[in-house]
Amino acid sequence: xxxxxxxxxxxxxxxxxxxxxxxxxxxxxxxxxxxxxxxxxxxxxxxxxxxxxxxxxxxxxxxxxxxxxxxxxxxxxxxxxxxxxxxxxxxxxxxxxxxxxxxxxxxxxxxxxxxxxxxxxxxxxxxxxxxxxxxxxxxxxxxxxxxxxxxxx
Amino acid sequence: xxxxxxxxxxxxxxxxxxxxxxxxxxxxxxxxxxxxxxxxxxxxxxxxxxxxxxxxxxxxxxxxxxxxxxxxxxxxxxxxxxxxxxxxxxxxxxxxxxxxxxxxxxxxxxxxxxxxxxxxxxxxxxxxxxxxxxxxxxxxxxxxxxxxxxxxxxxxxxxxxxxxxxxxxxxxxxxxxxxxxxxxxxxxxxxxxxxxxxxxxxxxxxxxxxxxxxxxxxxxxxxxxxxxxxxxxxxxxxxxxxxxxxxxxxxxxxxxxxxxxxxxxxxxxxxxxxxxxxxxxxxxxxxxxxxxxxxxxxxxxxxxxxxxxxxxxxxxxxxxxxxxxxxxxxxxxxxxxxxxxxxxxxxxxxxxxxxxxxxxxxxxxxxxxxxxxxxxxxxxxxxxxxxxxxxxxxxxxxxxxxxxxxxxxxxxxxxxxxxxxxxxxxxxxxxxxxxxxxxxxxxxxxxxxxxxxxxxxxxxxxxxxxxxxxxxxxxxxxxxxxxxxxxxxxxxxxxxxxxxxxxxxxxxxxxxxxxxxxxxxxxxxxxxxxxxxxxxxxxxxxxxxxxxxxxxxxxxxxxxxxxxxxxxxxxxxxxxxxxxxxxxxxxxxxxxxxxxxxxxxxxxxxxxxxxxx
Lengths: 153, 613
Hints:
The complex is a heterodimer of chains A (about 150) and B (about 625). By secondary structure, chain A is mainly α. Chain A has helices spanning about 5-15, 20-50, 55, 60-85, 90-120, 130-150. Chain A has one domain (about 15-150). In chain A, helix 4 (about 60-85) packs antiparallel against helix 5 (about 90-120) and helix 5 (about 90-120) packs antiparallel against helix 6. In chain B, helix 19 crosses helix 20, helix 21 (about 505-510) packs antiparallel against helix 22 and helix 22 runs antiparallel to helix 23. In chain B, the strands form 5 sheets. In chain B, strands 1, 6, 7, 8, 9 and 10 form a 6-stranded antiparallel β-sheet that branches. A 4-stranded antiparallel β-sheet of chain B has the order 2-3-4-5, with no helix packed on it. Chain B has about 625 residues and is α+β, with helices and mostly antiparallel strands. Among the domains of chain B are: about 70-205, no CATH class; about 415-600, no CATH class. The chains are: A mainly alpha (about 150), B alpha+beta (about 625). The interface of A and B includes residues 121, 122, 123 and 127 of A.
């Protein structure tokens, strides 16, 4: 049984077929590119460990934050790839916001962790860490919208 | 379209509210940070709490001897040999025993009865480690200690400046009323004047974060707010909930260190009652002078001659008076000079707590930049030699503490006439150990075009090398400084053989009636021989057969060792050792001229020095 959103979505697609295509493509492109980028970042981190970089080894907070950047970036890339498959679960106007927030949040969160570890006060991440809660709120909105849509479908 | 613009409006409104809320929080932080705090009533939290936010500072502090100043005795903290070791001093054989993690010292009590004491706490971890036992309500420092650097037991009568024959239990001391104040954080002896009992408490054993930074409870509570932390960090503003000695006004900054590195008496003296019952009222950052007065040469304290702790010109000659030294330094009040101009509690080698670059000239040249441009003009010595080392001339080693001679912290200019005016050592003759004080005075006045000071009537100052004169005729601190200068790393010659002339004189000094002086003499002798042996291994081969000299061994045993050393010296091929000159009383075979030495020994001032540490 089709939901109201799906019906609206189908109508919108009929009116403008590029809508779903562009949303799905955007997340696919972002997802695969980000996955590649954060895999390379993982390799770079292993390189820092392997070559005993003092800046990395002697700063536990930096190690933790950059590992979190790598982990979150890769995980969110996968979330984007999944999202690309279910982009039409939301009405078009909500979809635009959710899609935009998902991509922006997926960028801000690992970026915040990375910048937080780049240069930081003792015992605290650098000020870039404030991008993390902003990104997290965006992701909560995007994933929340999708979750609600899933319950309604 | 309509719905979409409605969303945008909602987002803008939410954004405005968030921005206003954020701005309001920032304003309240800004106002709160601007308010000065009185930290006297704030609670202490211990260093284990500080590490959560300050892991780097915690790590650098953990390396220091401050941290390990007072510790609970256990297998990690105890450095002495407790494996059934024994040590005999003054006819008493003390034993050091261990049972798992429990440590015991068997020695005589104040009534002369052999008693087994359980070691509860340790004091010190760099040069000496002393041991505390608990007797009733109080901790007692036992008179036997472990020399960490030399790995041997010794009696404190030989660590402090006490002549032979001093009472065995002279340094058996009450920790709760003495050591507690400087070797821990925020001490409170809790003395009940009616019951005459102690219930000592400290915020933390050892010298931890809050000794210098003040109590941390409020600091922690306020800084739970991340916005406050980021505001302080990125605005570089001071946090009023904690003390940073580097940001205090100069005088207050020095007082943080002076609280312990500047012996004081309560101000007024009657305040001692409050100190012993309620505890130390001083909190880092507050005004130390409100509670105590530094001890000076003319200070009075019933039963103690405090003047003996100073050279006769008022310069401190014992350690733990560095605060007074800096206050006496010429022009200090016009400069920005503080303890942390040179020292660093969180960097460099924990020995001396000085960054590597500050160990050289940089410490002085950071302010005296104009001298760096032409060092020779200032020093009149080879710019690369010991004579151009700032410390050698302006902070010479002339302060006694814990079997070591430390640099004075009264930064001053050389003046050899101090020798006859104040019976004190001076930079020129500490380095030119084979020269007289009058020679130094004449050279100094010639080199710098200064007026020659009035010369002494006593001919000894112009006939006998000042170091040699004072190592026999001086009082106990003069003797210690002179003997130590003979082995100093920085001196008038780089040739280790040339310095061996001091050996026969040191053998005479190894008969001194102070064990500490005998220790200095033996250490100087060993150092000189070891340095020469690096160029000629035969020296090491010959002297390694001679058993170790124990400055606290019975006299006959010490005499045997001295005789062995003397025999080695007499038979040594001395062709590479140049005679140091006519000012040093040695004959052509480099043996002491007995008549001169005896005359000097007869002049020796044997006034006992009471060490306040």
